[in-house]
Amino acid sequence: MTKLQAIRGMRDVLPDETPMWQWLESKFRHMAFRYGYQEMRLPLLEPVSLFERAVGESTDIVSKEMYNFLDKSGEHITLRPEGTSGCMRAVLENNMCYNKTQRLWYQGPMFRYERPQKGRLRQFTQFGIEAFGMSGADIDAELIFMVRDLFRELGIQHHVRLEINSLGTPDERRQHRTKLVEWFGQHRALLDEESLKRLEQNPLRILDSKNPAMQEMIEQAPRLLDFLEQDSRHHFEILCELLDKAGIEYRVNPRLVRGLDYYTRTVFEWVTDALGAQGTVCGGGRYDGLATLFSDKTLPACGFAIGMERLLLLIQTVCDTTHPQWRDAPDAIITSERNDSGVQSLLLADFLRQNLPDLHILVDCSGAKLKRQHQTALSSGCRYIITLNSNGETRLWEPLNNRQLTLTQSQLIEQIKASSLSKL
Ligand code: ATP
Ligand code: MG
User: What is the pTM assigned to this prediction?
Assistant: First the structure.
C-alpha cells in the first residue's frame, strides 16, 4: 500500500505545538484590540483574476506560485496566496468605507507553490493588519508602533530590526524606472538570468537580488528616494520623525522594494538574522493605488502581514521555551485500578468539574497498572494526582510538595481550592 503523507510543504501542527500557537494568536488579538482593529474573516478561495489584477502578473506570486484550478462550473479559482487583495475586495464589495475609515485584521492560511525549506512552506499562516481610508504617514507609523509592541510582548525585540523605504507614487517610480533600466542596461554583462528577465518586466525587483556578483553594481544604481517629489518626500519625513520621536530604531534601506506590485510610498520590513535566508518576519506598507484597480474609487490604505510559522521559529530559536503557557499540562489527573470499569473515576471527575469549573482534569482511562498511571501523571507535570483506591478511599497527592492526604470528596474540593489559592 502506498504510504499516506501530507502534501509537500504542508504541515500538521501537533498538540505539542498548539499551546504555543494559541499563545501567539492571543498576543495578536490583544495587540489588534488595543489599537482598535476589528477582525475580518475572509474566504480561502478567490477568483484568480483578483490576484492577477491586484498583485500583478509579473510578480513571483502570480507568475509561479498560485494554486489555481477550475471548479465544476469552469470558474478560475485559486487558493489565496496573501490577504490584502481579498481584504480590499471585501471592503469595496461591502461598501465598508462609505464615509468612514476602517481598521481591520485577519488571520489564516495562505498558499504558495514555492520550494519548501526552513521558514518557507506551501501552506503557511499570516496575521495581517489593514487600515483603509487614511492617507497620512501617522497611520504608517501606527502600524509600526503595533509591531514594535507585539515583538516586545513576545520577547524578541532584540532579535529583529526594522527597515523602511519609500516607493513613491507610480509617476515617481516611472521616472526612476527609466534611469534604472538605463543603468542596468549599461551593466548588462553583470546581470544573471533572473535579473535579465526582471529587466523587461519589473526592473525594481533587481534591487532585491541577493547574487553577490551583482551587489556592488546594485549599490550604485539610481535610488528611488532621489526621485521623490514634494508630497512623497514630506510623507516619508513625517514617518521618520514619528519613529524618531517614539524612539524606534530603523534603517532606511533604499533597496527595500517588497515583492508585490501594489505598494506606494511607505514600505517596511522587520528582519532577523536568526533564521538564515528566510529572515523577513513582517512585511508591509502603503498601497494607495490598489483600490483603483478594482473600482473607480480611490481608497488610501496600508497594512502589514506577519508570517506566523517564521515568527514561531524565531521565538523557539531565541527564547526560553519552558514558558508555562507553551505547555498544556493538566491540573489534575485521576488514577484508579478501574475494577468497576471506570465508573467511580468518571463520576469523581464529573463531581470535581462541576465544583471546580476552571480546572483542567484528565481521567486515566488507559487500563494500565496503577504504578504506570502514576509515572505518566508525574511526567505530565500536573499539580494534583487523585487516586481512587480499591478500598474506596480517595487520595490526593501533590507531587510539587510531595504531600499525600486521604480525603472525602467534599474535603477534596476544599483542599484543592485552598492549595490553588496558595499558589496565587
Ligand atoms: P519572502 O521574501 O520571504 O518570499 P514575501 O515578500 O514573499 O517573503 P509577503 O508576501 O510580504 O512575503 O508575506 C509576508 C510574510 O509572510 C513574510 O514576511 C513571511 O514572514 C511570510 N511568508 C511569505 N511566504 C511564506 C512562505 N512560503 N512560507 C512561510 N512564510 C511565508
Ligand atoms: Mg516570497
Answer: 0.91
Ligand 1 pocket at CB < 6 A:
82, 112, 114, 119-121, 124, 126, 259, 278, 280-283, 305, 307, 309-310
- What CATH number does the domain located at 329-418 have? 3.40.50.800
Nearest atom in ligand 1 to the alpha carbon of residue 311 is: 20
**How many other CB atoms are there within 10 angstroms of residue 312's CB atom?**
20
Judge whether residue 121 has pLDDT over 80.
yes
Q: What is the mean pLDDT of residues 348-366?
A: 96
Q: Which helix (H) or strand (E) holds 129?
A: strand 123-132
Confirm if 226 and 125 have CB atoms less than 8 A apart.
no
Distance (Å, rounded) from C-alpha 102 to C-alpha 298?
14
**Backbone Cα Rg of the chain:** 28
In whole angstroms, what is the distance from residue 126 CA to residue 110 CA?
7
One-character DSSP codes across 315-353: HHHHS-TT-GGG----SEEEEE--TTTTHHHHHHHHHHH
Topology given in CATH for the domain delimited by 18-168+228-318: BirA Bifunctional Protein; domain 2 (3.30.930)
> Residue 71: how many CB atoms within 10 A of its CB?
9
Are the beta carbons of 400 and 383 closer than 8 angstroms? Answer: yes
Look-up of cell digits 499563545 = 23
Ligand 1 centroid from CA 295, angstroms: 27
Residue 29: Cβ-neighbour burial (10 angstroms; 0-12, 13-18, 19+) = middle
Question: pLDDT tens digits for 380-401?
Answer: 999 999 999 988 899 999 998 8
Domain ranges of the chain: 18-168+228-318, 172-226, 329-418
Give the separation between CA 288 and CA 265, rounded to whole angstroms: 8
Residue 254 has pLDDT above 50, yes or no: yes
Going from the Cα of 87 to the center of ligand 1, the distance in angstroms, rounded, reads 17
Q: What are the grid coordinates assigned to 297, written together?
A: 474609487
* CB-count exposure of residue 28 (10 Å: 0-12, 13-18, 19+): buried
C-alpha 365, offset from chain centre: 37
